[in-house]
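Researcher: I'm preparing a figure for a lab meeting and need a structural model of a single chain. I don't have an experimental structure, so a prediction will have to do for now. The sequence is pasted below. Please return the structure as tokens so I can convert it later.
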Amino acid sequence: MTLVYYRGKGFEVRPSVYEPAEDTFLLADNLDVYPGEKVLELGTGCGLLAILAAEAGGRVVATDINPIALECARTNAVAHEVLDLVDFRFGDLFEPVVDERFDLVIFNPPYLPVQPEEVLGTMLDRAWGAGPEGREVIDRFLSRLPNHLVSKGRALFVQSSLSNAAKTLRALQARGFQVDVIGKKLPFEELFLFKAKLMF
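Model: Understood. Here is the structure written out token by token.
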């Protein structure tokens, strides 16, 4: 087990659960949640972002395809005294919230290009690898996102320069989003934070 800290708050991270890093912290630094908002976090991992959203007054649903991640996130929610504000659900992307809409959707998706022969099939692999172009998960997310937002709803997610961020921007604009993009340079890539808002 590892302990990760964000602004003085400690979060337990178990083996086979994605450890928060620059991408998670970029999301956390730009997380705007208003009291009473309905928030969805996809791929919650250790629960850091869901917990911050709950502490800001959001009513949070947090999903993951990794059952160990959900257990880890629940443990952290108990430690931060927000378990009653976060509904943890098992499943892939929007499957656990089929008919629900949210004010804000948060996602730190798998976005790194991975060739089939590089995939080991572990849960940790699934947290970062996203097919040869790094877009297998992002494209599915973008296609369904508008169906799970209220009018003028928002999305906050990250992506790497290695997986064609320009294509993501075009896809969002084609679906009626106003988009702001923040870049953060890392040694081998650039991270892009997408802040997208439905215009209808």
